[in-house]
């Protein structure tokens, strides 16, 4: 089973190297790695090109945002399964893709997801948020639950059938896709109870200046899919509170 990993990048010279290395160090062999660079103005492309021959495909051209870049990558993908690894993120260990492939092969799932850690941008050993996704239940989606998007792997044929990321959303397109797939379709979904990756705090959705936009986009996506909007957004936020509390408690125990 071939797994296509797509990395969307723009001006990430400080982190893109670690992202690439974490893909290349995976012990799973059948990987197609696609990087879509949005015409970075720093040294990102230079770093990417230093891995020539190890990355399957590289595109560098202007785009309208991250989700356009991701969609470009998905359209180029030839793998049986598609997953994302953003240019600020890296895999938790070098067995992740083997574990994900094993779940797909054993269960014939349409989608597999896991857990993730939000970490300090400067000290990636310092956990800010511990996202334990938990088991998928249809009813949980109705009250704001979604798995951590960056841990989600989906069969390419499913994405081709159900549609890619809605580029009219600049921040919440990942939530829109998950809501569409998990609530409006009856997919075979499996939970891998393992940390899949570490994510540096500071992406689009964690930037305080953009939280208002994220609020508006989340309310919009819920309304467009037949929900009330604000209640579901509030419930979605509520699922995150234990993640911060648990991470803080773990830091306290570690410091003691």
UniProtKB/TrEMBL annotation:
Protein origin, superkingdom: Bacteria
Pfam families linked: Glycos_transf_2
InterPro entries assigned: Glyco_trans_2-like, Nucleotide-diphossugar_trans
GO MF term list: glycosyltransferase activity
EC number: 2.4.-.-
Domain Glycosyltransferase 2-like: 4-142
Coiled-coil annotated residue ranges, if any: none
Keywords: Glycosyltransferase, Transferase
Name assigned to this protein: Glycosyltransferase family 2 protein
Native organism: Bacteroides gallinaceum
């Amino acid at each position: 089973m071939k797994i296509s990993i797509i990395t969307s990048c723009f001006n990430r010279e400080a982190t893109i190297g670690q992202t690439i290395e974490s893909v290349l160090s995976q012990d799973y062999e059948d990987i197609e790695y696609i990087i879509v660079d949005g015409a970075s103005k720093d040294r990102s492309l230079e770093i990417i090109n230093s891995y020539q021959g190890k990355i399957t495909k590289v595109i560098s051209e202007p785009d309208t945002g991250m989700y356009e870049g991701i969609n470009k990558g998905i359209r180029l993908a030839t793998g049986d399964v598609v997953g994302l690894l953003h240019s600020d993120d890296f895999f938790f260990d070098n067995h992740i893709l083997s574990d994900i492939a094993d779940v797909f092969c054993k269960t014939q799932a349409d989608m597999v997801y896991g857990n993730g850690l939000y970490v300090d941008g400067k000290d990636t050993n310092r956990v800010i948020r511990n996202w334990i996704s938990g088991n998928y239940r249809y009813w949980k989606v109705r009250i704001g639950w979604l798995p951590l998007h960056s841990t989600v792997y989906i069969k390419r044929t499913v994405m081709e059938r159900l549609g890619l990321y809605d580029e009219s959303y600049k921040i919440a397109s990942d939530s829109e896709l998950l809501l569409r797939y998990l609530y409006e379709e009856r997919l075979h979904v499996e939970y891998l109870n393992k940390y899949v990756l570490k994510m540096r705090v500071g992406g689009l959705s964690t930037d305080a200046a953009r939280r208002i936009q994220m609020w508006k986009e989340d309310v919009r996506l819920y309304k467009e899919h037949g929900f009330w909007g604000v209640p579901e957004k509030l419930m979605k936020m509520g699922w995150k509170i234990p993640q911060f509390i648990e991470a803080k408690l773990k830091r306290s125990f570690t410091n003691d």
